[in-house]
Amino acid sequence: MALLHVDFFSEALEMCCQMDVILPQRTKGQIGLTGNALAGKYPTLYLLHGKSDDHTIWQRRTSIERYVSELGWAVVMPTVHLGWYTNMAHGGRYFDYVAKELPQICREFFPAMSSRPEDTYAAGLSMGGYGALKLALAAPETFGAAASLSGAVDMAKRCEGQDGRDPYWEDVFGPAGKVRGGENDLFALAESMAGLSEKLPPLYMWCGTEDFLIDDNRRLRDSLTEWGYSLTYEESAGAHRWDCWDEKIQDVLKWFQGLKW
Predict the structure, then answer these.
(1) From residue 109, how far is each of 88, 93, 106, 197 by CA, in Å?
(2) How far apart are CA 157 and CA 65, in angstroms?
């Protein structure tokens, strides 16, 4: 595998940004690791960080490079700061950045990346789990499937609750009372897409039973099932911790591999 640290300019954010990119490389001589590169265009996973982290965190806390080494996939890990993968009410256009601009930039920089939605996936943890599901629901022309680990999936509830008293949340999502039913509400996005599209994106969700977000994940699970989504939902013992996410991202990779289009 090749690991690239990329500094570039984002027109959507009007600032310089960073991403780390893992690219396939066919190798035989590395000790303890065999690399693979597929013929033709290769699938790409956009792997998203949580609220306290940045583009380096998946490499620092997991063995993601080793996990994808034999798959022949690219992995794109961008920084979105505290933007919640959304076009902030008072701040950057982070949804436009990740959903539209970043795939275009990556395919220009790395032409071997596939442009097919069936080969383009999103996954993330916590804030990144929210972002991954949002990409599949709001940008299905680019992202064909998504996986959430311990996702912060109900931002309307969070903004309407105690967290909503912090002006930070209004900077991101706008007035608390206007989040529910809007473009940043995963429940509303999923319901509206279910009514408009015959082909809904496959989704995967996992949350630990000791995680403070478990009830929100169960409610979204029930809603997605009611609306007819192809949902793989799992929960098991675990909290909001990297030892859980390091284990479960391996299951996510297997799930993406098993998708039938």
Answers:
(1) 27, 22, 5, 32
(2) 35
Tokens of 216: 């929100």
Does the pTM of the predicted model rise above 0.90? yes
What 3-state DSSP class applies to 220? helix
Sequence-separated (6 or more) residues with CB below 8 Å from residue 6: 18, 19, 20, 21, 109
Task: Identify the DSSP state of 86.
Answer: S
Alpha-carbon gap, residue 192 to 99, rounded angstroms? 19
Q: Would you place residue 164 in the very low, low, confident or very high pLDDT band (cuts 50, 70, 90)? A: low
pLDDT of 38 over the 80 cut? no
Cα torsion 159, 214, 50, 136 to 10°: value is: -90
CB 74 within 8 A of CB 45: yes
* 15-21, long-range: CB < 8 A, 24+ apart: 15/92, 17/78, 17/79, 17/97, 18/54, 18/55, 18/78, 18/79, 19/55, 19/76, 19/77, 19/78, 19/79, 19/102, 20/55, 20/56, 20/59, 20/77, 21/74, 21/75, 21/76, 21/77, 21/106, 21/110
- Residue-level pLDDT at 28: 80
The enclosing H or E element of 47 equals strand 44-48
